Amino acid sequence: MIASLPPGLLLIGGALAVPFLRGWLRWAWMLALPVVGFVDLIGLEHGAHVTVALFDYELQPVRVDRLSLAFGYIFYIAAFLGILYAVTINRTAEQVAALIYMGSAVGALFAGDLITLFVYWEVTAVASAFVVWAGNTERSYRAGMRYLAVQVVSGVLLLSGALVQIAETGSVAFAQSGLQSLAGLLIFLAFGIKCAFPFLHNWLQDAYPEASPTGTVFLSAFTTKLAVYGLARGFAGEDILIWIGALMTAFPIFYAVIENDLRRVLAYSLNNQLGFMVVGIGIGTELSLNGTVAHAFTHILYKSLLFMSMGAVLYRVGTVKGSELGGLYKSMPWTAAFCIVGAASISAFPLFSGFVSKSLIMSATAGEGLLFIWFVLLFASAGVFHHSGIKIPYFAFFAHDSGKRCKEAPLPMLLAMGATAFLCIGIGVWSEPLYALLPYPVDYVPYTTAHVVTQLQLLLFSALAFAVLMRTGLYPPELRSVNLDIDWIYRRGLPAAGRAMARAPAGLRDALAAAGVRTAFGFLNRLVRLAGPESALARTWQTAGMVGLILIVMAVYLVLALV
Amino acid sequence: MGEHLPILQVILPLIAAPVCLLIRHAVLCWLIATLVSWVCLAIAILLLLQALEGGAIRYQLGSWVAPWGIEYVVDRLNGFILVIVAAIGAVVTPYALRSVAEELPERQIGLFYVMYLLCLSGLLGITITGDAFNVFVFLEISSLSSYALISMGRHRKALHAAYQYLVMGTIGATFFLIGVGLLYLMTGTLNMADLAEQLKPLAGSRIVLAAFGFIVVGMGLKLAVFPLHLWLPNAYAHAPSAVSVFLAGTATKVSLYVVLRFIFTVFGFEFSFVGQPFGPALLVLAIAGIVVCSLVAIYQDNVKRLLAWSSVAQIGYMLLGLSFATALGLQAGLLHIFNHALMKAGLFLAMGCVVLRLGSCRIEAIAGVGRSMPWTMTGFLLCGLSLIGVPLTAGFVSKWYLVLAALEKGWWPVAALIVLTSLLAVVYIWKVVEAAWFRDPPGTAGRIGEAPLVMLVPLWIVVAANLWFGFETSGSVDVAKAAALALMGAVE
Fold first, then answer.
1. Which ranges of B411-473 does DSSP label H, i.e. alpha helix?
2. pLDDT > 90: what percent of chain B?
3. Which structural domain, as residue segments, surrounds residue A85?
């Protein structure tokens, strides 16, 4: 019976019952949903399941293949772990929003046509904005608004792409589209925004750290990986993705190093990890696409684990500022241990999950002879180890003792972290089950001497660099600071420039006006003058004016028609 | 009985009105109005089904044979419009019970239902008749009653708004009458089908051109085409809530129907679109209306006035579809008539609930009202999403077809404009949602409760329709398609 239900609707429908359930019943219900969904996925047969006619089109709300399934499994696993982690905190709005968000993300994976994809795409956008808002602070409200705006733009682009594709080809199918057509470009841009491409990435670092401790765990797993899935489905083998991905792996490292808010550090490192997946999609070989899917799989786990551990710190201590933490291993030994497992995984230590997935992508890069890209990825790997592998656990749990003492994280959080850590190590040690899930047959052995030695050298030298810099005092100190990123342009730069324009002396203003700058900044003011309540357009006219107007319209028509 | 349905559609409310005038008892009048409006809806649905199956129904009034006698004609197009008008009427009447009792003085309530029934009868009459002069008669019935209805608003401003509407509406109706007079002068007939035959050889006539101008501009005023819309914002904003709902859902739609009927059936596609640049002119006015009025709506602080401005902008979308002069464009326009009636009725219904509890619908007054009236404001939010054109709502369907129609013509910028102006709708709807859900209620406010069930149920019927027709589109889309093809079929 369930098999005929589109995957994802289970979570969305289940979310509606949550407000009516109380206490442990609610938790049992919420935890059962992803389990049932997971079992349902195992039973799904490949191919198109359901077709629905909407307007004049044949929609395919459910299409099952290995690519969708691999993402589907990990989405349900992440959903289960996220819910388990959140058992401690009873926030109905966040729970409902998170379930709808996760359900629509799963649904989007199985969408066989662009219209269904668009619908789920927008639902994830709106529902996840509510997850951000559930942070329940003034900052989270504002960040959520900016986040929603960006996500909606992505949705509008996707819809535009779908419309253009329908107008050009008459097909609504979501398949490999390529960048040659306008439709492909629009869809590419829509995915690019959600995938946090360079210069389109700021919504991620802006919004994720403002959500609640549990909300960030939900957020980190789905939105960007959905975009990775979309790119893998629609744009595998597009060369430009290799360069975009390489840039994505490299530049967030610098921000991650100087950032003080540890959850924001993780958000930057999330961006960097996405870069690896994007490179894999760009290469487009079977090996590299396998690498992308495997990396998405392991990444969701260890990134969740890291966000969980920082969330636990935030929950107990009330801050995750690197400058205010330190020495917490005494109070939260379990959390510290789990955090280190996550850190080791993201750094791709042998025997941890990141190693078995990232080496697929690295081998694919080397196999294609992309030496420069390979070096960039190598540099990025060292950087990851540095900011996520060492910095996060070091500043939170060790470093100088901040004197803060608190209780260990609550039991559900520990359970969730423990289960996630178990999976991280399990996949690292026994990678065959993961490889069996990948879209293409895998003939790959991660644990060769060369791989292990290369990786260990890399890690050891990176650790050495960190140790030397710390000892010599050259390491950028953890300061309370706000780092400027691209978003400065639209959050501060433009408004400030507008204000400056208003105050500037007349001579300067005229000079700038000559350059055409004024037009841009004066636009808003003019709009208010044009459309504001007191403008000629909006205010109540005298009756005589109205009558005059209709006479003019009539006269114009008669003159044009009869003369 | 079945064959007399067309006349019953009009005569029932027309007779019920004087009956109410004699009774004058508030609740009894309400009961009569409710019964009549439901029966009207049933008749309208029966008529539409008949028209869809068996083609146009022709009813000779008093058995006087057309073209000498007056004839009622129900085809797919006006059958569709009849259902819209009757459905809005059937939803508003039960809702009016509490809303009107709160907003009007006791002695006016009976009169309210008299005027309301007259207005309903007039709108249905305009739609169903196949006689050009008869359109004018019913136009006056509906207009005069709607002036009276608007003037019943609780503020003095309502009186001024009604006065302005009266002046403007009378000019519009006069223009329409001049146009019909010119046609009569040229052809000697008033029956629409007969007019169409007689006008064919007269395509080059300047008098016919002038008649076209007077009819289109006159109805354009009633329809609130930009820039002839200036009477509308105040009229909708200051009218009693139930009246705002009713007029927003029906009056402009019926006027648009008259325009469609004249330019396609009476004057013909060739004359209207090929012989003169009517399409491009309409395109310019439609786009100007969409952009300007959406912008103005953003800066309004009175939610009802905001919605009224948004109505003018939405009329622009309907005209945009018409201006493409293609079957797909026309289908999109017709769909938007239907869907806009649903979404705007829902939004005004929700605001009526708010006015009932708060006595105001200014942005600063409704701060935090989402918490005290969750059902009302959730309904508002859902209808607002439909207005924006979010998928799985009715609004998405008509925007979708509108964009497709623009793409079919190869007009990329217009398609882009439709999407971009939808973002303006996001801004003004969000302005209300933000105030209602994210701001704290003003400290002076006492505890207010949710709206009464008799108002919530009609609201949620409309909300459900907004969702239903966004998902299960075959009904609305097929009827609109059939009507559009029937209109275009006259040419092809």
1. 412-433, 453-471
2. 50
3. 1-233
